[in-house]
Amino acid sequence: MEEDEKLLDDKPLVEDDTEELEDPEVVLDCVPREAEQKAGLGSSCPGIEQSKDKQKLRLTAQKKMQASQLRRDLRHLDQLHEEKDLFIQKTRGELRACRRRMELLVKQQESMAAEMAAERAANNMAAMGRLEAALQRLCSELENERDLQAQMMAVLQQNESTLWQIEVQEGQLEDTRKSAQEEAAAARRGLQERAAKQLHREMGASRKAERNRLLRARRCVHLQKELGLRQQKLVEEAQKNHRKALRFLKASLGKIREQQQKEELETREHMRRRMDAVLALKNSISANRETLRKFQAWGQAKTELAEQKAQAEKKAILAQGGDAFKHLCHQRRRQELEAQNRAFEEEQKRRKQEIVSRLLKEEAVEDRRRPRPEPPRPTGQRSLRDQTWSYVATFCDGQSTEAPPCCPLVSGCPGSTGPCLPAKISTTESALAPGPFLPVPLSALPSWAVPTCTSCCLLPVVSHLPTTQSAPALLHGGPFSHLQQPQPPPSSLFQPDVPGQRPGPAQEQIKENRPRSYQSSPLLTAISSESVQGDGSSLGGEEDTLAWPEIPGLWKEDYKPFQVAKEDVDRKPVGGTKMDKDILARTTQRLRSGLIHKQVASGREFRGCPFNSKPKFIHFKDFDVGKVYKKKITLINATYTINYCKLVGVEESLQDFVHVDFDPPGPLSAGMSCEVLVTFKPMINKDLEGNVSFLAQTGRFSVPLKCSTKKCSLSLDKELIDFGSYTVGETAIRTITLTNTGGLGTKFRFLLASESCEMDTTQSAVKLSSIFIYEDKSFYDKITTSFSEHQTEGNESSPTDVPSQKESGKLDVKEQEEGHPIEGVTLTTIMTIPPNEEQMEFSLGEITEGDIGPFSSIKVPVIFTPIVPGTVYNSFKVVFKNQQCPTLYFKVVGVAIDVPVWVPKPNVDLKICMYDRLYQDSILVHTRSKAALRLKFEVCKELRGHMELLPETGYIQALSSYSVQLKFLPRHSLPEDAGKYFDKETRVLEAPMTIRVADQIKPVGFTVHAVVTTSDLEFSPAGLDFGYCTIYEAIRTQISLCNHSLLPQEFGFVGLPKFVDIQPNDGFGTILPLETLQLDVIFQPTKAKEYNFELICKSEINRCFKLACRAVGVYPPLELSHHQIKFAATSLYDTSVATLYVINSHQSMNSLTHSVPRIGSEDAFPVGPTSFEFLLPPDSPITISPLVGTVWPGKRCLVRVAFRPVLPSELIHQEAFQALSRKAEIKLSLKETVTQRKDQQRPSFSMLRLQNQDRLLQASASQPPELQKEDLASSSQEYQLAQASLIRSFQGKFDKFVVPCVVASGDTKDRKGTEMLSFSPHNTLYLELWCPAVAPSIVVTSDKGKTVINFGDIAAGHRGIKKVSIQNISPEDLNLEYSMLNPDGPFVLLNPTMRLPSGETQVLDLSFSPRESILAQETLDIITKKGTLSLALMGTGVASTITCSIEGDVLNMGYVIARESVSLGFKLQNNSLLPIKFSMQLDSLSSRSRDQHRLPQFLASPDQRTEVVGTQNYSGQSVFSVVPVKGIMEPGKAQDFTVTFSPDHESLYFSDRLQVVLFEKKVSHCILLKGAAREHMMFVEGGDPLDVPVESLTMIPAFDLEHREGEPPPGPPSPEAEELKPILVTLDYAQLDPDTQAPPATRELQVGCIRTTQLSAKKTVEFSMDNIVALQHKGFTIEPSKGSVERGQTKAISISWMPPIDFDPDHPLVASALLQLRGDVKETYKVLFVAQVVTGP
Fold first, then answer.
1. Of 1040, 1043, 1051, which is closest to residue 1102 (Cα–Cα)?
2. Cα–Cα distance between 1267 and 1264 in angstroms, integer?
3. What is the SS3 assignment for 1247?
4. Which residue of 209, 338, 436, 515 has the fewest C-beta atoms within 10 A of its own C-beta?
């Protein structure tokens, strides 16, 4: 800072020096140049030393790369060492834990073995079994632990060896590690030293730069002092010029603002109108859409009802056995005949009406053509018309003081004597007819006829106006012609077009009183360009008249206006026979109804326009009225086959001007053409549009037709003329071209935008383009108001420009669509502004106005003469005489400078440039100086590394040019270096260049523009990993190639290996800017190995882009004979079968002789049995058998693949639900119809709406339960109906499946239980299946299309028959074959048919005859060449299904007194659906011939006794009887049976067997009947049997019987005479565990008392047992020892035994006791007890 102050203090500064020093441009521009010079002087390094430094740098870079690689390898080794060490520690811990578990298991085994030895000694078998199971479990766990230990040992050894190898490598690289560490330390020290040196150098450079800056500042101060005076003079002159220009600029800006405000107001008004039109159009469209939607819904409902009705009729006819197709054909023909009759009657009526109308028209014409006599008129008396005009004049004179100037078109008003305008215009085909004058109120007048005065106007009523007359015709021949032409209107304005009639005096007076100065009226400038027709309805309200009719007949009510018949009446030829008329009527009806024929070729239906027109549309351009134009078009048949073409005609609006000559060519083949001649004779000058309609066999089509009038289409070739920079005093000329591309010429004139000009508007003040009706009275008020407003504004503001043709056209279209008239009002107030003499920078050439013809152009020179330095702007406009042509504007810009050197091309556009590519351009520099100048070309410092100007310094000669070379080589660092000059988002570079001229302060600049883009192509993903791929398949992977450049680039993949393919176009193509292409890379290995390769993509600039790829080739041990199977078209529910082989060709491990199966570079697959398994996708119609198998080496396995297409269950459920919903809707509608008919009173609207809401709620709540189910059973009727419907409407389907087949080593039989084989996912094979499914050729039509024939329940031995109808729905006849049914089965096909023609139906008879109770099911296949129809036959054979109420099929009748009986009942339930015939059979009553050769029962052992018939009655009667014996059991009913037991003697072995026989064939149940009989009322049960169940043949002694029946003998009985009955009771005491006391052995004896009907003194039985104490000493316990039993009851005597202490187990214990029973008699039983101890079960 002290040095700076010293330098600045050497010389004093003036006041302005401080401000000049703060200028950044002066400071920044000078510093780099001197710094560069000093730096260039100080740099003196030779080239040799630079090359050596480069070599050193390269060697250093290589060493750095090697060092970084070594460091990376060392880090990797350290990481591996840590991982392996950690893994080994974990493995050792797990190994120790495994060994501890093994030791624990060994200890448990030893303890378990000791326990087993103890239990074996104790003979405890249960504990032995439990311990053995536990021991086996321990052994298995120990074996698993040993296997785990072996595996862990192997893994530990492998990891330890790996760790050793890593440590060895680390030892080898130890020296390298140390050297690398030393080099890193040395590198850090070197960096620190270089950083210190660099800091020292930068400090010195900064000091030098600071000194240079101070020197430059001092020089700048001196320069500023020298240039101060000169700059001050220039500033004063510029201020003077600025004040002058500012005065004119303010005036121009004021005018421009006013004009912009007006345009903005007009734009807003225009936008408001457009928005209103759009809203109205939107509302109209929405209403039309709603109406169309209603009509479509109505038509669809009507079609559905017709289809349902046709289906119902068809079903009814089919149910009756008739031909539905024939009936429908007859019905259709009958309907066509009725339609033809109706059309014929309508045609007759129409013809009659036409004839009557023609007769009436002819009569009217004849009446009008008759001459009408004129009434006599006195010569001296004034006519009625004269009186009327005088009255009007008098009335208007009275109000002249109050009314403003009146319209010149209204007669009688002040200031005007012209005739009145017509109040209503109506159309006819002849000229205008006369009419009386009616008073018309002001509100009823149209906009073009509204006067400014308030007096009423008298307007003539014009009865008719021709509809085909255009606007020009009306102007020249109608009542408005005087508005456009100065000559008087023709006399036809008030007279009819009747020959010989002359104009009356009223017309002559109008001619005389017509004003001559009506052109000066302001109303003419406010008339709209569209004529408006008044509202005729408003005339009816005024009944008072001010004048009397001249011709009284016209005022009568029955007067008929004059009408002329049409000249071009379309009369059809009359004649021909009745047949010709009928044919013509039918043909016309078909054509009018749009009857078309669908054209189908090769299964494809033609859609689209049947004929193509060349040219596409017919355009008659720039036509003249009255001339004839012809054009020929060619129609080409674009359909698939032969087609026809007929001319329908043109639209109604074109029939008077366009005539089409077309000779129907007949049938045209595809591609053939015919010609059509279109003749256009314009009668009006108006644009026409329409269509020429034709009718083809496949539908209607049309050719657009357009006729356009001559128009002016004017345009300028440019809207801005930029002169560039010119020195003051020079002159530059540019030309602008005015082009007329239309067919109409006009006058033009070039003016300044601030000037205005009158283009003879007096001759075309009003232009009528259309006539339309508008009935809104407020419209006329609006026109009047707008006219008054515009008239007021026109006197105050500047003239307005006519809007452009485009905007006015849009406005007209919008307003015509809305139905509103165009309200545009054009003001032509003339205002002349004198040109500014001072502003003469821009001027036009000599040609500024003139005529421009059609299809021509005119060039107008624009001259720029700069006066004051600076930028000059000006605007010009081109106005035209034709007011339909918009005013054209263009601007002129120029820059006036006083620099002698300039660049004519200040903006250099290099377009799009790529990085690292060189681009050059030449910059031309001009000079105006008369002396040579030195130029220095500079590039901004930010871009000096990318852009260069050569040479940097040059000399330009006087009045010449100099060329400098621009070189642009963008680097990738351009976005960072360029800074603000480069936009990173748009990639646009705007680089300012500077040309410094000697002795000139202001430099010359130009800008270089360029869009810099990259040339990179990017792959996504960056690398490909195909994974594992077998040699039998190929893997396709998709990659994305993205072009980041803004230029298209050609690319191609070169040097591809043989096993790689790239598609499309083999990897070559062109990629557009910023486009991303999807490419398919296909990899198919040729052998098993690991693949690592790169794909190289080269661009057109020879840039290489690499894509790294890796894959593993797999040679699987198995292979498929076919990897792709294409099934034939298979019908639904049919099956197609294909076969293939799984081959095992791996027989040797010698890899030198042949390739062996392996995965990449792994070990070869072992030789041996190899298993496979196919993994089917879920829910697929594919079946593979076998799915799993094993193939031995050198063998192959046959695999069967079946394809059976079926319909998805979801689709069937959806169809079923739709059918159910339709049924529910029909039921609901029928219910509502019935309810509405019952309602007699009509409810109000509110009540009806409430009722409808209630019905909707009820309908939603009362939906059928079928719709609420989520699923339907496949056997339900709705499901099967939906399935049949979908089968008939099936259109075909194609599916492709890829089934993987996994491969594993080993045999599937060797696996243990559910153990899975180790399948490798890399050896997987793939099988591709193409599965096309089509609709079946034969369908079932009976029973709603069900293919399941259910016979239901048929009784065994009976037969049921079902009829099945099948129909051939294919287009050809079919031969039928049938599958073989089971010969021993119950199903039989009774009438097989061998041939079924197309479309016919055949009925098959099927029978079901079950022989037994069985659920039978078989499949009958109907085989054709197109498919197979499978019928599922089902039936149930019902023999008997009954249940018995007796459990165990044993009915024990109990004890009965001999010669008495007892009855028991049971039930049989019929659970089948058929009635069952039954019969009851007893074995004792059946034949015994089969028992003749058998041994007697008492001689057979108890195991050999199988007879169930026991003791029988002595009387020969059956012991057992059953009621009923036979009968029929109804379905679901039960039958009661009663069994009676009637023994006639005492026995304990009464038995028999009761068999239930159904249908006299089958034994359903066998019931064993048992019973016992006693002579006395007591009995004892229990104990062991001591005799056989067959009684002796001896009879009971008679004395016993007498003794029983008589009284007992007196005195006590002797013990010897009393009979003792033995009872053996065996007790087994089970001692299983010697340490545990077992429960006592227990038995029971039942003592009972029989219920009897005999009289007895005792009602109970008493029992008692003696010797109880002795039995207790032996361990027996008897409870109770005595008691009593009531009749019909039993009581148990419990006997238990525990072995006493002195019991000998080797000898059983025997004891006895007496049991006495006292009832009607006394009985004594000797009970023998035998007890023993057992040790086993």
1. 1051
2. 6
3. helix
4. 338
